[in-house]
Design brief:
0% strand, mainly alpha, 361 residues
Length: 361
């Protein structure tokens, strides 16, 4: 009886941690959706989205999920570095965190699983956030807009450089996560940091944020149809809206979509639906653990079934999405209720925060 009571007490405490301040349940929901979207992008061959054809709407997960993930990183950085439990040396905290994320990312790349691991790019973005921690919110918005307008013009010649076809170029591509080029993705990080500065407890702020995000996304998607990108042309590369293209329309469309989803998720979790989406929220409470788990499970499963970890289409043919996704959600749910924070989240915080605070002191 005493053991059962202790377990029940632990579950109640962990539920309160997930529901109550300073945590914002809607951000966990948004992170959970981002992880599920990335699983879908990895494990399905998604169609090119055509808004006039509902059969293609599943393609919304392609590209947008990882951009939502990056935008949420910015939100989290603002909340953590300005909150009551902020590290005494936020710059050093971000630097240590970046280093640990990069190491974990390289370890996942070494599994040979044929996906572009986002963690090295994520680590670079954390380091890039350091100069922006204490700037004004308006400066963050301006920086995001400038990056989103300027960098798409610079990427095509950079990505066309012969360097990327060399062995050192391939190594740099993987080690920096260039599939998610940090100079461009800084726009999503800065926009997320600006969103994190908003008063996310006020419904009016959330509705306005969601509305602006949806309008920006709708305008970008409409322009992609009305003014399609020219083929095989520099301007066409700059203007593209397709996933992972780095075009202006993708940046604005997917960035606006990410901001809208974040605000809507926070609004949803202000209602009774907060309890209904609890399993997805627990997934989003430990996104690093969940993301890493899918790569490790993929590697083990593929090696046992196919004899290799690198056969993408062979693995997809095993129909792994639902068992992997539901299994990871269930594991995160049980872990969150019984043990609290995710294991990798706990590790990263344990490594980064004490070192940053000790160096600051």
């Amino acid at each position: 009886m005493a053991a059962a009571a202790a377990v029940a007490d632990r579950i109640v405490r962990n539920l309160r941690r997930l529901d109550g301040p300073p945590r914002i349940p809607g951000l966990d929901l948004a992170r959970g959706l981002a992880v599920i979207g990335m699983l879908a992008a990895h494990l399905f061959t998604l169609p090119e989205i055509d808004w006039t054809d509902p059969a293609t709407w599943g393609g919304i997960a392609g590209g947008r999920s990882s951009i939502l993930f990056a935008t949420l990183a910015g939100v989290s950085i603002s909340i953590v570095t300005t909150g009551p439990r902020a590290p005494r040396a936020p710059g050093r905290w971000l630097a240590w965190r970046a280093l640990v994320l990069w190491v974990i990312g390289i370890a996942l790349i070494l599994t040979g699983v044929p996906v572009y691991v986002i963690l090295p790019a994520y680590a670079i973005l954390f380091a890039a956030a350091i100069p922006f921690v204490h700037v004004r919110t308006a400066t963050l918005w301006i920086g995001a807009v400038v990056v989103a307008l300027v960098v798409p013009w610079l990427l095509p010649p950079i990505e066309a450089a012969p360097f990327w076809d060399t062995a050192p170029g391939e190594a740099v591509f993987l080690l920096t996560g260039w599939a998610y080029p940090a100079p461009l993705w800084l726009a999503f990080l800065l926009a997320g940091m600006a969103v994190g500065r908003l008063d996310l407890t006020r419904p009016a702020v959330l509705w306005t944020t969601a509305g602006v995000g949806l309008v920006v996304a709708a305008v970008a998607e409409t322009l992609a149809v009305v003014v399609p990108a020219p083929d095989d042309d520099y301007l066409g590369q700059v203007w593209r809206a397709s996933e992972h293209s780095g075009g202006i329309l993708e940046v604005w469309g997917s960035g606006g979509f990410a901001i809208a989803i974040i605000a809507l998720c926070v609004l949803v979790c202000r209602t009774v639906l907060r309890a209904v989406v609890l399993p997805i929220r627990t997934l989003g409470a430990m996104p690093l653990t969940a993301y890493s788990a899918q790569i490790v499970v993929w590697a083990v499963w593929a090696f046992m079934a196919l004899g290799t970890t690198s056969d993408l289409f062979g693995f997809r043919a095993l129909n792994p999405f639902w068992p992997m996704t539901l299994g990871i959600i269930a594991a995160c749910f049980v872990w969150a209720l019984l043990l609290g924070r995710g294991p990798l989240e706990r590790l990263v915080d344990r490594v980064s925060r004490p070192r940053a605070d000790r160096l600051a002191g």
